[in-house]
User: What shape does this take?
Amino acid sequence: MEGHLNLTLKIWRQKNANTAGKFETYQVSGISTDMSFLEMIDVLNNRLIEEGDDPVAFDHDCREGICGMCSMYINGRPHGPNRGVTTCQLHMRSFQDGETITVEPWRASAFPVIKDLVVNRSSFDRIIAAGGFVSVNTGNAQDANNLPIAKDDADEAFAAAACIGCGACVAACKNASAMLFTSAKISQLALLPQGKAEASKRAQAMVAQMDEEGFGACSNTGACEAECPKGISLENIARMNREYFSATFSSK
Amino acid sequence: MAWLAKSLHSSLGKKLLMAITGLFLISFLVIHCGLNATIFLNDGGVAFNEGAEFMGTNPIIRTMEIVLFGGLLLHIYDGLRLWLDNKKKRPVAYAVVDGAANSKWYSRSMGLLGTLLLLFLIIHLKHFWYFSRLTDGLASHTLYAEMQAVFTNPIVVIVYVLGCISLGYHLLHGFQSAFQTLGWNHPKYTPTIKSIGAIYAIVISAVFAAMPIAFYFHLIH
Amino acid sequence: MTKLDAKIPEGNLAEKWTKFRSSVSLVNPANKRSLEIIVVGSGLAGASAAASLAELGYKVKVFCFQDSPRRAHSIAAQGGINAAKNYQNDGDSVYRLFYDTIKGGDYRAREANVHRLAEVSGSIIDQCVAQGVPFAREYGGLLSNRSFGGTQVQRTFYAAGQTGQQLLLGAYSALQRQVGMGNVKLYTRHEMLDVVTIEGKARGIIARDSVTGALERHFGHAVLLCTGGYGNVFYLSTNAMGSNVTAAWKAHKKGAFFANPCYTQIHPTCIPVSGDHQSKLTLMSESLRNDGRIWVPKKQNDTRKANEIPEDERDYYLERRYPAFGNLVPRDIASRAAKERCDAGYGVGASKMAVYLDYAAAIIRYGKGEANKNNMHNPSDEEIQAMGKAVVKEKYGNLFDMYKQITGEDPYEVPMRIYPAVHYTMGGLWVDYNLMTTVPGLYALGEANFSDHGANRLGASALMQGLADGYFVIPYTIGAYLASEIRTPAMSTDSEDFVAAEKAVRDRLETLMNIKGTKPVDYFHKRLGKIMWDECGMARSEEGLKASIKEIQALQKEFWSDVKIPGEIDNLNPELEKAGRVADFLELGELMCIDALDRNESCGGHFRTEYQTEDGEALRDDENYAYVAAWEFAGPSKFNLHKEELKYENIKIAQRSYK
Assistant: This one.
């Protein structure tokens, strides 16, 4: 049921990539528990505009948990306190009246801050560009049902492909590692016959790009899996390791 | 071989090295723990000393000892390298981190636990390896007698017990983590691996910790 | 008055496309390398077009306002994609898909385009599967299908409730492959703010780098706008927050006609508005109508909880009114029926502006089915419930989870509350058969154009159209124009036209920044949205439309004198971006009302209260309104109407009946 909250917000403010940032504290009141976290920030922003201040810049777009654009680190966790949701799907009923909420941007050298809570995640695009595809030009395909794929494999590939590229895995990892993201794509395509032809090249190229972008290594803490809003499994990292090592030792 | 060096320098390669050396050290611990556990036969150290004699003189074992040190050094070197690398990946730290919400503290603290273990290991090696291999101490009394003597000091006992606790947590994460790194994650087998890992970590560290305690309280003679 | 030439190839409907493909001018590979194409937008249409054109050898630049092409709002499409594969052996064919689409669009779409769409639909599925798109499959390893509204065959391919995501990621990976190969240059966080025309042809764009605020000039031999729909003119819609009309509107002001702007799709199954704070609405996929039953209490203002209302006191109004299609009637019909019930006082929930979408029967039906499959005799009710819920979870789990997160209610236990919301816009830039607008060299693909859905789009057809345009249409049709451009060298962006276009953009941004009024952008956007929803939404009337045109004009004036934009022009400034978009929505909203006022009939998503049958169905006027209304921009608040007659040579035009 709808209630109302008064909250203290500690939000990271940073003018641009070259300026040092700091926390600013704001009070908001009368926040409906039916609001999403982003709608709560909207309320704050419209007040800041009316008061003549610069509103808090943050990434968001679809607001239904699928585009992967929203990216806040809330009270020490990516996408806030609930599992399996993005910040846009986090609702204020998950907070208590009087609570202090600390909001930070994703922090990783491969995700430099652009402004306030907005970070640059183009490193993810470059990892996909390195090999996250099947090399099939438009028009080259055979009839879709000529290639039966076991339902289990298709389902598992889908589970990996459900990644929304938000970067919560990197944000959650103590090493700012992008292995869950990278492995999800490697896994999806390794599980499907269409992806097998270039599986070995793909694993090597994507891992090399991931390293070049400045993401850390994996400590197998499982924080990424726990914080992933789409529940991408650690099994994908294991599969990536297998793909990578077998590519290393068997490629010519 | 450039391909191998290149691959071992990748983030995955470093982890592979960590996992392989880790599993190697895990296998060593089984032998070390098994042999030392003969003290609990309470036979005045007869069986233990025989084993120690064998381990100290058999040429194959002595060669393996060098391999063991190599593995250990690689594990330490690789761990250090990973730690230094990973530290750079988040130049600005978070103000608030709720790590407990998504992972076990010991999985996030492998570097710290490893460092504690290394410090403990230096003390441990000084006590027994140095004594048995690099001095002629064995001429005057047995390794068993040396253990009895060392573990009369309560501070030493406490250091050893703390060392064993560090070892236990290090293994608790390290065991299953090595399998994950090697790519052995499967819904059917992983739960078993995790259980074996937990049992292994608890048994090994408990048995080791029992040794100084048993000596100190004269539970064995 | 310009004569609209749709350039529809001669000949038999079924042979037009084949003949066209075999006779259209080609550009040889060496020339392709020196032809540059700008693609604005990176959704299904944009990403697939950019990837396919780059594969052919053209030099491509892709622009998107988001931080990555993968964010485009195609990602949020849930239910599925249609294709006339007839894998289910249930009588589907290219003709049937064509027919269903024309009928579903209430006979206001262009036959030749729709037939081409149906023809290439099968190839889309093949292409996506080859890319590794993990569609749902049966145990035999073959592709699975489900039903969607407005059809009686199962032709919808899907990937759980995330079909758009999987298709977009497929197109995105094809695009990124070309980026990696250096054939496509990607400009993310860039917003197109004008089309540059030189001697009447589109020659490039002015884009703003959102991070630095810098304006950039980019040349292209052709410009493709794949910028989606304009549903956000209503403020609340299922569109993403950033979805906007700006690119299309700038093109409109540079001479591209805007067609059928009033055709808006109101989707029947969305999560109802919960309060004034609401920033967007969330769709619950149409696929839910496969298994869910829609009802309201038979008693007005019934305050009982849903589960306390006995079966015989429930009105399954869609099944009652449309027995042949039941809960699977097209969207416009389902939406209006929900509005009718709520307006008559039968609505549910706190706001009384909602109807129930109930899964209780489906859970029992699936549960019993599972029991039979597993050879369970005499299963208990609990077992049936548990097994039924498991099946529903597999089919719709992510949607149910989403509903729970947003409303705090568990749809496995209580019926969902739903209400119609703005979802898609069938109108858009007028394009000919080649997808070219009235500005030579300027193309519009996907939702940004108007061509294939008539006055109402069938479910699972938007994904089909976006990918058809990008993968299988534009790579051929663009040749018809570019073959004559091979002698045009890449132009300098220092030319007068580029400089002038950039200056105009800069002036407008500075004007916006300098208003320094008192109200945030959202204030105006919300007011515009309310006018549009009330008067140009599910029901429209002459009186209301006339009044809203005046109101919108007044709101435009107020906006340009009282909007307050904080921050700097040369830094990341989301408020400035929003302001530019809302300024364009304010103009578009006016045109939508003008178009709705012009169209003295009801058809598909356009329902004029004056024109309805006795039982409240849309009443078309084929004699006077079987045309595409293409509007030419002729100055502020001034639009000239051009008509493209719609000729139905292969389908007998009839009143739509789903009874």
Observations:
- The CA atoms of residues 35 and 91 of chain A lie 6 Å apart.
- Chain A has a mean pLDDT of 96.
- The two ends of chain A are 63 Å apart (CA to CA).
